[in-house]
Write a structure and sequence with these properties.
About 35% of the residues lie in helices and about 25% in strands. The protein is globular, with a radius of gyration of 22 Å. The protein folds into 3 domains: about 110 residues, no CATH class; about 100 residues, Alpha-Beta Plaits (2-Layer Sandwich), CATH 3.30.70; about 55 residues, no CATH class. The strands form 3 sheets. It has a 5-stranded antiparallel β-sheet. A 3-stranded antiparallel β-sheet has the order 1-2-3, with no helix packed on it. A two-stranded parallel sheet has the order 4-10. The protein contains 9 helices and 10 strands. By secondary structure, it is an alpha+beta fold. The mean pLDDT is about 90. The structure holds flavin-adenine dinucleotide (FAD). Flavin-adenine dinucleotide (FAD) binds next to strand 9.
């Protein structure tokens, strides 16, 4: 069903008007239509960083990664020339899917403007060619592009968002699915309680929902991640590799917690401070925006 318009009606009900003409009234409308939502209002920001990736599910003349291996980020730049090393970095994300089928994807973590699909495709083939690997069969091509640092939506509005529409993508990793699964039950429980109060209007219900979705703790963590993302985007390939070498020296609980956004705020501040202290000077300067 396609939403066309959402109207307030005496502040108690919202009305969704579909392209078909069908009208649906509800006390609370939740918009889960992704990051391009027309209805969720948020502050305007012009330079939105995007994660872009080009991937292939297919068969190859020799395995692009070892059997049963999953590669989160291979930033090795051996196949790039000096000019390419200076441009926006990208990494290989890959996995063995079994039956001699692999998924390989060249990913730009975040960039403004976004790296083009053609550029990422070229980089992926160059990476494979440098290892003497040819693509022998393509089952599926993946073209990925989504915003990493959409501003958080306003809390006082008639529609509640969820997912990309609610800026729930992790600004430093691009992950969201795990976080949606973790955060949905609490939101549903709270909304069930709020909906039992008949005097609450659409605006009040949605605003209460936004408070549950983006409480102080998660908002502060989001700001820290956004700061981190802005600094990472200014790093060239060598500085970025240096950053990630250091990042993956954190304990598994720490780096996994950082990427999944499950560290409580004090622990996140501790981990980010530890990262900073242990970083080489060139990364420290980049994090402080001193060069
Ligand atoms: C290629 C790709 C790979 C990704 N990989 C990962 C990953 O591995 N892990 C991870 O955590 N995140 C990943 N992400 C990021 C993010 O988790 C996904 O983008 C996720 O699908 C976003 O979920 P969503 O529900 O907000 O929006 P979507 O999945 O985009 O769903 C929105 C739905 O709303 C529908 N819709 C839109 N407008 C209307 C309308 N007006 N009326 C009715 N329906 C409408 C759309 O058709 C769509 O079905 C990836 C993103 C992309 C693009």
């Amino acid at each position: 069903m396609k939403q066309q318009k959402i109207l307030k009606k005496k502040n108690k009900l919202s009305e969704v008007i579909c392209f078909s003409g069908l009208k649906i009234k509800a006390r609370l409308v939740i918009d889960a239509s992704g990051h391009k939502s027309n209805f969720v209002k948020r502050p305007v920001q012009n330079e939105i960083a995007q994660q872009a990736a080009y991937g292939i599910v297919g068969k190859f003349t020799s395995p692009p990664v070892s059997k049963e291996q999953f590669v989160l980020m291979d930033f090795r730049p051996n196949h790039l020339n000096n000019e390419e090393k200076l441009s926006s970095p990208s990494f290989l994300y890959a996995m063995d899917l079994g039956n001699e089928t692999f998924f390989v994807e060249e990913t730009s973590l975040a960039s403004y403007p976004a790296l083009s699909q053609e550029n990422l495709k070229k980089r992926l083939y160059k990476r494979l060619n440098s290892k003497g690997i040819k693509v022998s069969e393509i089952f599926h091509e993946e073209n990925c592009l989504f915003p990493m640092n959409l501003p958080l939506p306003f809390k006082k509005q008639f529609v509640l968002g969820f997912g990309g529409a609610a800026s729930m993508v992790h600004p430093a990793s691009g992950y969201m699915v795990g976080s949606l699964l973790r955060r949905a039950p609490l939101l549903a429980q709270k909304l069930a309680i709020f909906l039992k109060e008949p005097q609450l209007s659409s605006l009040e219900l949605a605003s209460k929902g936004w408070e549950v979705l983006w409480p102080y703790e998660l908002t502060q963590r989001h700001k820290l991640y956004q700061y981190g993302l802005r600094r990472l985007m200014s790093f060239d390939e060598s500085r970025l590799r240096s950053f990630f070498s250091n990042f993956f020296r954190l304990s598994t609980n720490e780096w996994v917690g950082f990427l999944t956004n499950t560290l409580p705020l004090p622990k996140l501040i501790y981990v980010m401070s530890k990262m900073f202290i242990n970083s080489p000077l060139k990364v420290k300067l980049g994090m402080l925006k001193l060069n």
